[in-house]
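Hi there, hope your week has been kind to you so far. No rush at all, and the record is pasted right below.
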Amino acid sequence: MNYTHPSADQFSDRDRQILANLVAAPDQQTAAAWLGITDRHLRRRIDAIMRRLGAETTYQMIVLATQKGLIDPKALPADT
């Protein structure tokens, strides 16, 4: 499989906001509420980000996103 990992600049501000809220929230339902979207919409966004990063799990997505500098796991979202 020839998979090229996308660079950090290929992710939108909204993608970064979603990732940051996932790190800070105790669960996905809370993250969705903070983002003002439904759980289902959040799940679709997570799935899309996972595909772009080549991640198989949400945990792996967070690790890969952190390695790419997409999120700072120590920072809380500004809109919570």
